[in-house]
Amino acid sequence: MQIYWTKINRIIDETPEVKTYMLDLPEGFTWEEGSHTHLGLKGFNAGDKPNKSLVRHMSISTLPHEESLGITTRIREQCSEYKSILRNLKAGDEVALFKTYSNVPLKRENKNVYLLSSGVGLATFRPLVLEYLERADNVSRIHSLNIDSTKDFLFTDVFESAPDKKFTAQFVDRRENYYEEVKKLAADQDGLFYIVGSDEFLSQNIDVLRAQGIQQEQIMLDKREKGRTAFFPDQLSV
């Protein structure tokens, strides 16, 4: 396993609870849209075995051409030891990156793509939208639907509807409104539905989509094959 140590070059306060840590690009480190990485804090590999409490699975919220690797995360006042350490880091501090992979790259199958997310889960979709806006080949259109009860919606500079580019962005702050919109989107029986959020959020969205006739192979999760089986136990994982 290759570990890339790199430095924080700046920290962006996206909202009162959400920060983006912009990291220097390590030499040889590559990724694609929809990627996640493991973010290790100092000391995570100091002993005989990795200290898992100092490692988290994080989505990458930027694309390589932006020349900085972004990690966007919510840090509440009451938080884990990991988030507490992360909150106190400053520009110049080092972090580690390893085990980078994309479960949700943008599929180019001449279909409509629907991005369903909760809160900071939108960070996973930011690179997909940027990739689409730069090159829309073989994607009919994209619609993003995000729910955030805080009403502090993220990345509104990117998630801004652009009808000429066949991209629409929708934000809601109430759960009942969100799922009503999901049902409407599921009227497109040929669409591709990407979901990012907590496991509970994934399960609820899958239940709504399946009830509307959307098939398992149309639903994309930020999970490896083994992880998908927990959400589709009655079928073979795609």
From TrEMBL:
PROSITE patterns named among the record's database cross-references? FAD_FR (PS51384)
SUPFAM superfamilies attached to this UniProt entry: Ferredoxin reductase-like, C-terminal NADP-linked domain (SSF52343), Riboflavin synthase domain-like (SSF63380)
- InterPro entries with a match to the protein in the record: FAD-bd_FR_type (IPR017927), FNR_nucleotide-bd (IPR039261), Riboflavin_synthase-like_b-brl (IPR017938)
Q: Where is the FAD-binding FR-type domain?
A: 1-107
Q: Which domain of life is it from?
A: Bacteria
Task: Give the transmembrane region(s).
Answer: none
The protein here is known as Ferredoxin--NADP reductase
